[in-house]
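User: Could you check the structure of this?
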Amino acid sequence: MLPSLSGPAWSQGQPLLPPSLPPSLPGGMPLPSLPVGSQQDILQRILDATGGRPPGGAAPAALAPPPPSLVPAAPSPGPASFASRPDAGEPLSSTEAFFAARLPEQQPPLRQFGYDTFRNLVPVPGVSSAIMGALPDGYVLGRDDEVVVAIRGRSRQSLSLRVGRDGMLALPDLAPIPAAGRTLAELRADIEARVARELGGSEAFVSIGQTRQIAVFVAGEVVRPGLVPLPAISSLLDALGAAGGIRRTGSLRAIRVEGPHGSRVVDLYAAIAGVAGTPDLTLSEGERVVVPPLGGVVALGGDVTRPAIYELPARAGAAPLSAMLALAGGTLRPAGNRFLATGTDAGGRRAVSELSPGSSLRRGDAVIVSPGADVMAGGLRLAGHVAIPITRGVGPRGAGLRALLADPRVIRPDPYVRMGVVWRVDERTRVRRFIAFDLGRVMQGQAELLLREGDEVILLSQADVLWLAAPPVQRALRGEVGVPATALPAAAQAGAGPAMMATPVPVAPPPADCPALTALAVAARSSPLRFAHARSAGFPDIGSPPCPQIFLDYPALLPFLLDQSVLLAGEVRLPGLYPILEDTGLDLVLATAGGPADTADLSAVEFAREPLEGAGAIPLTRVQLDLRSHNFAAVRLSPRDAVRLPRGFGDRDTGPVTLVGEFLRPGTYDIRRGERLSELLARAGGLTAQAYPYGAVFTRESVRQRQQEGFQRTARELETSLIQVAAGQAVAGSRSGGLDLGGAINAGQALANTLREARAAGRMVVEANPVVLASRPELDVLLEPGDLIVIPKRPNEVTVVGAVLNPGSLQFASGWRAAQYVRAAGGEQRFADISRAFVVLPNGQSVPAGLGSWQAGGPPIPPGSLVVVPQDPSPYETWGFIRDLTAVLGQLSVSSAALAVIAKQAQ
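Assistant: Sure, the predicted structure tokens are below.
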């Protein structure tokens, strides 16, 4: 019979529940039990037949939420292993909170062991709990048990019979058979014998159908104490599960089972934790299960297989630590464990003590298992320029470098083969030190080094060694770590080209995050002569490469390598500082450095050494070696030696000269030492017919630098004069009361800024006419690397600028002087100072224009000249900062004209 589907249960969204049926039918016949799962299946079929809605049009009931014991707890923040535990979402019990306060370092907190066993034993509504599988022959039958008898042979029938209230089993054609109180094996033998005797030619097969229900009373520390109905074959675990499981305040090791046949104490640890013994978990009709309060507990945490809170045996106040460790699955490491116990003394204070496995644990003790010494023993490490840093064992017979580096693929390409280091710890003082070895000889099987426990084998790369000559290291040797350099030093500028020397090149400061540079700077300042061989290298201070990883990992390695290095300088393909062992051949070091350059002069190789003497003196010996025979192996090197390969003398100079303009073969030419302009002109095929050698522009880098310095100096002097004028110190003789002093100062300051921003051309006045050079050799200039020679086409104009009415370029007229060109440009302006007018000739020279009344108009003006008519400086002519500006303006005009010619010819 099913309940009505239109009641309040539907309106409240409650799940449909099976009806409560009477235990027996009228007349005393037992009511066949229907499993709960079957009842739910029947109910679902009824709902499906009505379209998923109950009669009356009500909405179908919402599915019932699962019981709290089956809802997975939300993962709490913490380790993944803790979040995945079944009890991770439950609050701590009082016992667990007690040990959590005693072991705050144990995360997650320890939980009581064994109580989650009953999670899967709690019956789930809607799930059948029928007994599966065959019953044992020792099963004792009772009233209401169903016995299935199948008779085969002359008589064929199958019977399902129940044991009556009188304990008898009635079979057709046979006398009643006593069944209650007998085992299944006894009943089976009796029925088989009777069928064989009374029904000849037939045999019987006996089994159990449905078992009877028994009632067991469960009391004590369980979730739902009371009378629990169970199948007759149920065990003690089934009864506890049907009662909701044992609370965390209840005991798992002292459960009492009392009944007509006496009482017994059951230790569930024997069933769930592997404790020795076979607990009797059977239950009989009329027995009572009592779960007493929790007994004494201890906590085991740290490095054990199953950290938890464990209960002591029943009525025991202490237990051996070894027995409790066995409950926890044992320690994770087989030996070397440390057992730190936190207990309680007589005064209630926490008492900490060290235990041994044979010690006893008392109620409330907490033990943390940790390593006695968590250090690595018997291991060594390979690091640095390797494919992957690895850790190896020394082994009982020790280990050597050959075995460690037996596989060459362990080493990355381009290692530095002249040295590797072992970072070793002294066994007595525990102080580390470096031990060098020749990696190349070890790889070839010519050398060996036995390794010890704790050694770190460090391999270097070629890049690591080349960094020893890098600017950050050189600055650290001078004690300049963290101090940025603002410009290239003079030594670097001497070897730089014109493009590099145009403006000062800022140098980045050494990396501040490289501890090796700091250690080196401290060592260099404490002993200035310690790294004298490295500081005398003279490497260019250009750039700031980053600190290699090897020196970040081992900062003390950098000073050690410099102490063990030799200096290779001069005509070497890769000059630098190369760490070596004592008595290393020069041939091996040169091979590492790429060998000598083709321009090296091997007849005068300079070799310097600082031999150490017993008296403490360190004399420097320097000799010249003739190594033209290439017998480099005969030169045996020691750390701190210096070898310089000079360049062979040659006529080729160190830079090119550029020819632009009206040459038959313009371009860039290399020059020899002492080569003159006439020789270069001949190499270029001479000048074209349109060439104008009188207007040649010849620029030189050294001249440009001096001119640029002159502009800067003049700007500083001009600003100094402006300060004096502003203070009233330079206008004492002024006769003009309405003088615009502020405008004059602003104009002077603008001129000073123009001077600072002006770019000097570096022009020299030279004779570039081959005919003149042939007749007057003293005018033939010597060439320098970086010189620029521009020969323009013959111009046909003269330019007039300055204080004239119509500044511009005029067509050249043969024999005309400056006064005629000024008149052709409209004449001078009202405030023009014709007495200071000058002419910039095509070759770069400046001469007076001769426009004064007492002058004769000046010399004839050649084509391509520039006539400059300045303004009259009155009434400021007595000022010191205006008096000499004519020469400055002349220099600016010459520079502008020269740069204009260069730009025009370069197009």
